[in-house]
Amino acid sequence: MSLEEPQPESTYVTDEGVDYDALESLLGAHVLGRETHLNAEAFVIRPDEVQEVLGLLKDEAGFDYLSCVTAQEYEDRYESIYHLKKYGDMTREVGVVVPVPRDDPVSQTAAPVYKTADWHEREAYDLVGIEYEGHPDLRRILLPETWQGHPLGLDYDQDKPQIVPYREHVNPIEGDYRDSDSDTMFINIGPHHPATHGVLHLKAVLDGEQVVDVDPDIGYLHRCEEQMCQQSTYRHQIMPYPDRWDYAPGGLMNEWAYARAVEDLADIDVPEYAQVIRTMGAELCRMCSHMLALGTFCLDIYGDFTAIFMYAMRDREKLQSILEDLTGQRMMFNYLRLGGVAWDLPEPREEFFEKTRDFLEDLPVATQEYHDLITSNEIFQIRTVGTGVLPPEAAKEYGATGPVARASGVDMDLRRDDPYGYYDELDWEVAVEHGCDNYSRLLVRMREVEQSAKIVEQCIDLLEEWPEEDREIQSNVPRTLKPDPDTEVYRGVEAAKGELGIYMRSDGTAKPARFKIRSPCFSNLSTLGEMAEGEYVADLIASLGSLDIILGEVDR
Amino acid sequence: MNPAPLEAVLLPETISELTGLGQFGILGDMIAAFLAAFFVGNLMLAMTGVAGPWAKRKITAAFTDRIAVNRVGPFGLLIIVASAVQLLAKELIIPEHVDRPAYDLAPVVIASSAMLGFAVIPMGSGIQLADPEVGLVFVFAIASIASVGLVMAGYASNNKFSMLGGLRAVAQNIAYEIPLIVTGASVVIFTGTLQMSGIVEAQQQALFTVAGIGIPAWFAIVNPFAFVLFLAANIAELGRNPFDTPEAPTEIVAGYQTEYSSVYFVLIYLGEFLHIFLGAAIITTIFLGGPTGPVLPGIVWFIIKIWAIFLFTQWLRSALPRVRIDQMIEIGWKGMLVLSFANLVLTAVIVGVFVA
Amino acid sequence: MSSEKSPRQSIIDGKPAQTKTRDARMGEGADNRFNSPLREAFGTSPFILTKFDQFLNWCRGSSMFMLQFGIACCSLEMMHTYAVKHDLDRFGSGVPRASPRQADTIIIPGTVVSKFAPRMKRVYDQMAEPKFVVNMGSCAISGGPFQEGYNVVKGAEEVIPVDIHVPGCPPRPEALVYGVVKLQERIANGESSPVVVKPYELEPFGDLEQDEVVEKLTEQLDDDDLVMRYNWADSP
């Protein structure tokens, strides 16, 4: 890892963290001021120098990962915050704050520096209304193109009528050719299509069977999650919503992302016992989520609801049953609380342990079955090996995280790089593959299931031997949580799909002033064009399946 | 040609004799032929009726740890009636701008081409409608008409997914038709006849005897290589998994049948299953000794054999991933074609040597 | 949100709900999915046709082809309902078809948002009669936890008529099985749901009443573009 990194960055990163003074001197006159966010220092810069500053930070200081772009509106200004990290070391963070005046909200785009900024800035334009100068394709991304107003802006009136056109599917044979000289065919895959795993719309241009261009059109499940969170209270009301971002179910991992951000924001401690339960629950969810990924990926390749899909569902049933015992619900757990978890393990504890152990014992048999049926099948191999290739450089450019990045040989995992919960005390490995193709992405997921099983097993051992008097599930948290005004934090956890980050700004009330979700699927999906262009339609579908997107998380 | 003991008389003749229709001359013969065709057609339709809505679900369920239909009637068997009536009673949607005669004809072509094929298949117990000298050629020719139906359906539907499905179907059918027929020809080298009854007859004598039980000279045993080739080419020709690219539900929705509803959909659906059974019938006839077998009457053996092959296709469907269209064409032109010619030459040499 | 009141509160306190569009469409067109054309032609119900209708309804109730249609969280539970443990196919209704032309029943498993509603309406329109709709989960019933969202249609019933509602967030597979079986029972008995509340319809842009939004969009849209006009405050 560290061997590959460019030399000069060592100037800006010490053992303790990022040397912000050195960074400031690197940026020199670009810096207008400094802000302190709870996760990192942030530099305030002019709106017309965004590319220059980000370019410097990327090339000179080695911040090669644009994690998130947060846009928000204040009473007197708009602000875009670029959260930068390093793939090599996720704890090295820096923020770049770009304020623009309210009457002329134009900021320079960062898309030429980081490709992932393309989609993030489109979202910021769509929901908040900041315009990005020089952006390659500044359209609405989540809302329909005819939408009036920017809903997360301060003066948005929700009661105004809206008009949504229905144009793209009027007559399927009309307008076949975008360009009358070429022999390509324009085809809509989705939003209702058996392979889109929900309501994704792919505008694909085909040349015969080959994909010339693919443009994912999202927003068919934009459920205003950020608005929902902004009008709910920290203590109780927000927690159910994370379950519904990644409903694969990544429930506990999503809840943890929120819990971790608030616990940092309001400085809440979590008892160790609760951390172990959280770790166990999150890994159970991860297994469940990867099983779904496996099942639906195979559904895309096998066609029809065949054996392998059903077997994956069978194992998911077992996992959901364990999770139901633990949390009380099959999918929407609402189990984590700020500073702990809702309740202790179900009584009798032995039964719960036994059930989970039974599952873990059966798992190697099931995994072997999957390997027999899928990964060692030759047809499956010719279908997936070498297709949907995502080189590591591209993965980094697009801000891909999670199994998608790890299958491209990017060795990152927040559980190890930015430890939280009980992960650093346990013995497990990060699964990394170097194939960069659909096959590797599947392998990474299957290996992660094995690692998760290992983690769960250790957690159970710990929980079983935990002294009864020490079983503190929740720390003392005020009934109404009001963090200090103008505190900002950006925190991520390793969800099943990658880095799930939450940005929050408090304004002294019991509700967050800005709640921004950095969804891993959103960034992962933007790599689809890179993978699928020039490939066959069948591989486009397979690549989409291998990305394992959950539309609830993409659109939020 | 030696008259085979099994097919001494064809079904129309039997009927005309039994009913006394024969005395009415050519008209009587025609009526008898119609009656016979009616009987065979219904037999096959009944089988597809059982296979489509019920057996397929039950078999898939068995492969995937489920139960499938069990509420409607005993073992859920009444679902056959329910599904058929329910689908037939639905609204028939003719989308705008479809190519009218072609759109309407396609399902009929798909279904009827399979039905016609059964005319020359010897089903044992004297059930065979006709036994022309060129039986094998006839059945190949008829079965391949289906690809015309597929491309008509795909083209006429005014839907891009259908279009892709239709094109895939044609590419695939052309690529696998040749290996299929060339492999079939290798059987003809053995038998020296294209007549179906002759081919069945040629497989009767015992090849060798194991513990007093004579193993018949089925071509599947004589030339297993040709059998495997033929089976694979046949599955590709039919467009079943792992070669179901023309339908490919997760890629192109339902391929050529995307726009079809109600009666037309039933026809296409039936046509698909009829084609599976026709393929199974051809395989049975030229590789598995036709309707012959010990103890049980010929027709029962025939049904057992074709259902075994149907079961095999469903097994593949549950277990194998789909190949990509370009890989599929590559396998067809670069692999199967070469292998089938090699098989043909090899068979010719062996037969030549033995005969010599 | 900057305003003190939540959007919901502002609706309750503010102007009375505008129900013009809803009233105009409510109760329109009795549901005649169960009447055969023959029966209508005869005018009365001869014995043989009554029996025939009964038989037809039994067939429709016993065998249903589902549309393979996933929207949100509930679609996961829907998949589980089709799959190993719960096996909806036992009731003769577990064949998912990818093409709406070949499906009888559509399960709406999730939140319907403004961008998707016209598409969902189109998918529903593409299905052949008689067709049935199962609303799965609170989102499809009323918008559920996202009801206050600026982009969320408050229930699928705003767009298409619905036969059965299965509450839950998400409903357990058992609940969905119960809902589907209940629907089958109703179909077999020839009962239908009288629900035809559809405030939102696809209509040509040129037919819309002129107002501020329409004026703004005249440049972007042609008169014969199909559009769906939402009025967030209008729906219940």
- What Rg of chain A, in angstroms, do the CA atoms define? 23 Å
Query: Helix content range of the residues of chain C, please?
Result: 25-40%
Q: How much helicity do the residues of chain A have?
A: 25-40%
Strand order of the largest sheet of chain A: 3-4-7-6-5
Radius of gyration of chain C, in angstroms, nearest whole number:
20 Å
- Which regions of chain A are unreliable across 5 or more consecutive residues at pLDDT < 50? 1-8, 169-178
Q: Major β-sheet of chain C, in short?
A: 3 strands, parallel
Could you give the order of the helices and strands of chain C? HHHHEHEEHEHEHEHE
The 3D shape of chain A can be described as globular
Name the biggest interface.
Answer: A-C, 62 and 67 residues
Number of helices of chain C: 9
Distance between the termini of chain C: 22 Å
- Output mean pLDDT of chain C: 78
Strand content of chain C: 5-15%
- In percent terms, what proportion of residues of chain A is strand? 15-25%
What is the second-level CATH architecture of chain C?
3-Layer(aba) Sandwich
Identify the strand order in the major beta sheet of chain C.
3-4-5
**Number of domain modules of chain C:** 1
Could you name the key traits of this structure?
heterotrimer, B: 356 residues, mainly alpha, two-stranded antiparallel sheet, 14 helices, 3% strand, disordered N terminus, C: 236 residues, alpha/beta, Rossmann fold, three-stranded parallel β-sheet, two-stranded parallel ribbon, 9 helices
Explain this structure to me?
The complex is a heterotrimer of chains A (556), B (356) and C (236). By secondary structure, chain A is an alpha+beta fold. In chain A, 37% of the residues lie in helices and 18% in strands. Chain A folds into 2 domains: 7-133, NADH:ubiquinone oxidoreductase Nqo5 subunit (Beta Polymerase, domain 2, 2-Layer Sandwich); 225-555, Cytochrome-c3 Hydrogenase, chain B (Orthogonal Bundle). Chain A contains 17 helices and 18 strands. In chain A, the strands form 6 sheets. Chain A has a 5-stranded mixed sheet, covered by helices on one side. A 3-stranded antiparallel sheet of chain A has the order 11-12-13. Chain A has a 3-stranded antiparallel sheet with strand order 16-17-18. In chain A, a hairpin with a 2-residue loop joins strand 12 (201-207) and strand 13 (210-217). The longest helix of chain A has 31 residues, at 272-302. Chain B has 356 residues and is mostly helical. In chain B, strand 1 and strand 2 (213-216) form a beta hairpin. A two-stranded antiparallel sheet of chain B has the order 1-2. The longest helix of chain B is centred in the N-terminal third of the chain and has 39 residues, at 25-63. Chain B has helices at 11-19, 25-63, 79-88, 100-117, 135-143, 146-156, 160-191, 196-202, 219-222, 224-238, 249-252, 262-287, 298-319, 325-355, and strands at residues 206-210, 213-216. Mean pLDDT of chain B is 82; it is low at 1-7. In chain C, the strands form 3 sheets. A 3-stranded parallel sheet of chain C has the order 3-4-5. A two-stranded parallel ribbon of chain C has the order 1-2. Chain C has a two-stranded antiparallel ribbon with strand order 6-7. Chain C has 236 residues and is of the alpha/beta class. In chain C, 35% of the residues lie in helices and 11% in strands. The model of chain C is unreliable at 24-30 (pLDDT under 50). In chain C, strand 3 (105-108), helix 6 (117-126) and strand 4 form a beta-alpha-beta unit. Chain C is globular, with a radius of gyration of 20 Å. Chain C has 9 helices and 7 strands, in the order ααααβαββαβαβαβαβ. Chains in contact: A-B, A-C, B-C. At the A-C interface, strand 10, helix 4 and helix 7 of A face helix 1, helix 5, helix 6, helix 9 and strand 7 of C.
